Amino acid sequence: MSDESQARPAHRPAVENRKLRLIVGVISPLRSILPEIAAVCAAFLVGAIILWVTGHPIWDTFYRLFHGAFGTRTAIGTTLTRATPLIFTGLAFAVAFKCGLFNIGAEGQLQVGAFAAAWIGFALPPLPPLFHITLAFAAGAVAGVLWALIPAVLRAKRGVHEVVTTMMFAHVGILLTRYFAFGPFKAEGWIPHTERIAATAQLARIMPPTQLSTALFVALFCALAVYWFLWKTAPGYGIRAAGLNPPAAEAGGVPIARSIILALLLSGALAGLGGAGEILGVFRRFVDGFSPGYGWDGIAVGLLGRLHPVGIVLSALLFGALRVGGMAVDRVTDVPADIAVILQATVVLFIAAPKLMNFIRRREHTR
């Protein structure tokens, strides 16, 4: 009896240690995303102040914003539809940024990828559906790669800053696809768009009557693939090492130029896939102006998601919800949909400002 009573306390420290490790295991990931949670909360606080100053009801507006994004089955489907291309462009930004690169041209890569997928869809004769869809996605990815190729080579071989070249190519891509939609590939009618893609190239809709398609599954697969590539492969390690400390990475045998080219080409491919998914699943033809700025928003999605695929998926969901909820608020109240844009911009500001200050401090410290 006395032996048992003496043995019981001996187990308590082990049990308490296991509980402590469990608590730490839960809290540690939450602590790592506290800045992002604080940024979202601060953005809604700023939005509440703006609504109060302008005389609009705060709680009713936020309720309608949330209900418009998640309140019904149709709202959820529409939110996921808007989030899908943001997953692609957020991943595109993250892959480049992991290598210390700022791919600001995802919008152009998305546009040329969308047109390439549309061309495969309407120009080729009907093919077996799986093959036709795969070919269209591949065309979108290749178009995005080609649109990122020259900026990648110029950055790796000549040191030309990728912000300048990717921005220039973004505008060229947007204007080129606009020319195609208005000119040689324009279908009949006053709207600038191409012919409808063949039924064998169309992605299935998974939540009618919304336009949510199986492109969502492709986006989630790409998120898993990006995680595996960046954290489980040698080339992915090279990309991350080149972004963290190029001199040390080069001293360790990492080919910096090759990592730069690979990162930007993968970034372009992901953006091109995002454009292909929109055409094959939502519009089913190339339409000029189909993107409300998914490429530009991908920068904010990537930053808010901490450049991690899981965070990017959640961040894309938030931005998709704000976009859809903002339109719902605009429909049923006198609050303009721009309140959602203000919330997005404020989130980006609160996320980017600390990073900018850290960058400035590092620059001052090295002088």
Notes on the structure:
The protein is mainly α and about 375 residues long. It is about 80% helix and about 0% strand. The protein has two domains: about 1-30; about 40-365, Orthogonal Bundle (ABC transporter involved in vitamin B12 uptake, BtuC), CATH 1.10.3470. The chain contains 14 helices and no strands. The longest helix is centred in the N-terminal third of the chain and has 31 residues, at about 1-30. It is globular.
Which key terms come to mind for this protein?
0% strand, 14 helices, 367 residues, globular, mainly alpha, ABC transporter involved in vitamin B12 uptake, BtuC
Question: Tell me, what is the CATH class of the largest domain?
Answer: Mainly Alpha
CATH topology call of the largest domain: ABC transporter involved in vitamin B12 uptake, BtuC
Distance between the termini: 72 Å
Tell me about the largest β-sheet: none
Assembly type: single chain
Approximate strand percentage:
under 5%
Note the run of SSEs as H and E: HHHHHHHHHHHHHH
Quick check: average pLDDT? 88
What is the molecular shape?
Answer: globular
Q: What are the segments in which pLDDT stays under 50 over at least 5 consecutive residues?
A: none
Overall structural domain count: 2
* Total DSSP helices: 14
Category from helices, strands and their pairing: mainly alpha
Number of E-type strands: 0
Q: What is the CA-based Rg, rounded? A: 23 Å
